[in-house]
DNA sequence: CAAGACATGTAACTGGTTACATGATTCG
DNA sequence: CGAATCATGTAACCAGTTACATGTCTTG
């Protein structure tokens, strides 16, 4: 289960509350691993029991305690152990491609592809912005920063490929509508 | 749940047994939707109950009957209805990218990236072969064939992007190992 | 003073994986 | 004659989604 490991990576960068982790999963990390707060709380509880993370409590009268999670030495060890395993390829599950393959309604498909193109274009410009902001000089990077740069680079490559694909789809489907 | 729809798309091309569908999900369809035979049998049973597919039985003494599934008119209608819904983006879940982002062991990462590169390269050449074989003249395509061509094209775009990404990762991680 | 961010969770359900089980037919 | 392919499933489990629940603090 790799959500555990995504959480460990995030906590190894900086300690956080469950809520804070959920925010991170909405933003940067979310580009390669999506998770909801409910799921994160569930997994954090399990991880604490297993000794991979520890909590610092802040009492808040009336309400549930605020918990700040940190990675433990055991957690760091587990992260290294896991990082040495070969990773499995992503599981392919694309509604969009299934729909395209069936092509039951080319006009609806064209609209859907246009929507996708817009979304991907927006994502791509967010990636480019992030690259300009956080990694202005990629030749100088090393260690952890290099990792996050290379991860971002993957997002950029994928988004560019997706964009080019959408454009080809749109070109073909538009010419179909005589 | 889009496995249902992936099955409907596949059956709309040609009727098949559960086993046969599982084979298709190992091959072509598997590039954009993965599923095991166990899951397929489960979903087919539910779909038959819902009237989306029908079966033709072949008695086989001693053993369970062989069932050949076909899409029903209700199934075709459902496929069209679904195809008009906007599709959600793929859920990002990449072990590889999480590992890269953490970059706990650059040497192990380089090996993993090389493995990935090899796998992707193999996949890409399978795609190219399939394109040459099934869609030698893309300008002439229309209807269903156009859909399957465009779906394949997506696989090609993604594989190329992945390959280029892996090469950049390898270049950076190799130069790190002074 | 209202909206939105901060903060933590439970419960029911759905979808998917892994392990197990069985047996005939085909091909080298 | 043994391995691979054809063929169908059950059961236990794990991961992830959706709906519900609660309450404070901050900012415009």
From TrEMBL, chains A, B:
Q: Which Pfam families match?
A: PadR, Vir_act_alpha_C
Q: Where is the Transcription regulator PadR N-terminal domain?
A: 7-79
Instruction: Report the InterPro entries cross-referenced here.
Output: Tscrpt_reg_PadR_C, Tscrpt_reg_PadR_N, WH-like_DNA-bd_sf, WH_DNA-bd_sf
- Residues forming the Transcription regulator PadR C-terminal domain are 93-173
Protein name per its UniProtKB record? Transcriptional regulator, PadR family
* Organism (species): uncultured bacterium A1Q1_fos_324
């Amino acid at each position: 289960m790799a959500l555990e490991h995504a959480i460990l990576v995030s906590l190894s960068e900086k300690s956080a509350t469950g809520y804070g982790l959920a925010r991170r999963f909405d933003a940067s990390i979310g580009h390669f691993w999506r998770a909801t707060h409910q799921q994160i709380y569930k997994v954090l509880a399990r991880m604490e029991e297993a000794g991979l993370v520890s909590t610092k409590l802040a009492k808040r009268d009336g309400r549930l305690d605020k918990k700040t999670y940190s990675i433990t030495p055991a957690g760091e060890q587990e992260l290294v152990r896991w990082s040495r395993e070969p990773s499995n390829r992503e599981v392919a599950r694309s509604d969009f491609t299934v729909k395209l393959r069936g092509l039951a309604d080319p006009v609806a498909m064209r609209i859907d592809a246009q929507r996708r193109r817009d979304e991907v274009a927006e994502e791509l410009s967010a990636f480019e912005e992030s690259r300009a902001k956080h990694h202005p000089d990629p030749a100088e990077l090393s260690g952890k920063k290099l990792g996050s740069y290379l991860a971002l680079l993957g997002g950029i490559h994928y988004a560019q490929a997706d964009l080019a694909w959408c454009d080809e789809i749109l070109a073909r489907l538009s010419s179909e509508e005589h």
